[in-house]
Design goal:
This protein is α/β, with parallel strands linked by helices and 342 residues long. The protein has 2 domains: 203 residues, Rossmann fold (3-Layer(aba) Sandwich); 85 residues, no CATH class. Helix 1 packs parallel to helix 3. It comes from Corynebacterium suranareeae. This is Putative gluconeogenesis factor.
Length: 342
């Protein structure tokens, strides 16, 4: 089997084929999806698909949405950068895609990769064609797929913005939702029944392993399960479906959330969603009581919890709030093997 590149040496021998997914489809956006795609490369599949949220409305992406009406390219660009080859040319392409212009002029704040996606979309007619072309030019080891071909808006019900904590306010826009000082209770997408990208549905149905998370829970993870046809594809696919929980709650949209609460929120937004495995970091959830709560919550969506060391370390041996791609790849392969034995 032709693989993308060698797997980490610490992956146990018993996890070699056939307990290794050939097609991995990862759903998400932003930095969380970036780390998951890096981990997916370590798993040595024959194919990686990144299904990316299109609700961003801030920074360069927001300006492009407003001025050109295209889907926001920022998360798509980051996914492309994550899948560039692990060689000198791949590193150059990653730096090129991620390069952000400074200064105070019209280009200030724009990432070059965003502008490349926009330009090729104009030339080739669709964002999917543009992304496929850039992926080929950059030698990307996978396919970048917008979940929808039109931009989506995010709207949240938020409490705690008034003296009376019971009062709910509507907060609209991904940036506003992510930065709200209130407590996000629920989110929805506008339009509420968008037409999905056919390539995204195909990627889910064809996969051996589908991952969801980590990432900004309300603005990068949950929007995927608010697209009805995506939920239907997740229910239909024979893939192992794995949720990767965040290492910590994020300031703003999930401030104060426990690991258990993250799972309940998933179920709240997609009652029929069924998951096979949930990966939780051993260090961030060491209490037996907390683990029991998480396992009980996981059972409500049909999932089994796998505890793994997945935290990255800095150069001084201290743990960070970022997933380590090599560690996460091992966790993904082990949980995949467990799910296939169930």
């Amino acid at each position: 089997m032709t693989t993308l590149f060698d797997a980490p040496e610490d992956i146990p021998d018993e996890l070699e084929s056939p307990a290794r997914p050939e097609i991995i489809t990862s759903l998400g956006g932003g930095h969380g999806l970036f780390q998951t795609l890096r981990a997916a490369k370590f798993c040595s599949p024959t194919k990686i698909n990144a299904v990316v949220t299109v609700a961003d409305d801030g920074g360069s992406s927001g300006r492009i949405r407003r001025e050109l009406g295209q889907i926001p390219p920022g998360d798509l660009r980051m996914a492309l950068a994550a899948l560039t080859a692990d060689a000198e040319a791949g590193e150059l392409w990653e730096n090129l895609l991620q390069h952000r212009f400074g200064g105070h002029g019209a280009l200030a704040g724009h990432a070059l990769g965003n502008l490349m996606i926009v330009a090729l979309t104009d030339i080739l007619g669709t964002s999917q064609h543009a992304l496929d072309q850039i992926a080929e030019l950059a030698g990307a080891q996978g396919r970048i797929i917008p979940v929808c071909s039109e931009p989506l808006d995010l709207e949240a019900e938020v409490s705690g913005l008034d003296e009376d904590a019971r009062v709910m306010r509507q907060v609209r826009g991904q940036v506003a939702v992510a930065a709200t000082p209130g407590q996000v209770r629920r989110v929805r997408i506008i339009p509420d029944n968008p037409e999905p990208n056919a390539a995204a549905i195909e990627a889910i149905l064809d996969a051996d392993l589908v991952t969801l998370g980590p990432g900004s829970w309300f603005s990068s993870v949950i929007p995927h399960i608010l697209v009805p046809e995506v939920v239907e594809a997740l229910a239909t696919t024979k893939a192992t479906k794995t949720v990767v929980l965040n290492l910590t709650a994020e300031p703003g949209e999930t401030a104060g959330f426990s690991a258990e609460r993250h799972i309940h929120v998933l179920r709240q937004h997609a009652r029929d969603l069924k998951i096979d495995q949930i990966i939780v970091d051993t260090k961030t959830l060491s209490s037996p009581t907390e683990r029991d709560h998480v396992e009980r919550a996981a059972r409500t969506i049909g999932a089994e919890v796998s505890f793994h060391d997945v935290q990255a370390e800095d150069g001084r041996g201290r743990f960070t709030s970022v997933h380590d791609p090599a560690k996460l790849s091992t966790a993904l392969l082990e949980s995949f093997a467990v799910a296939r034995r169930r």
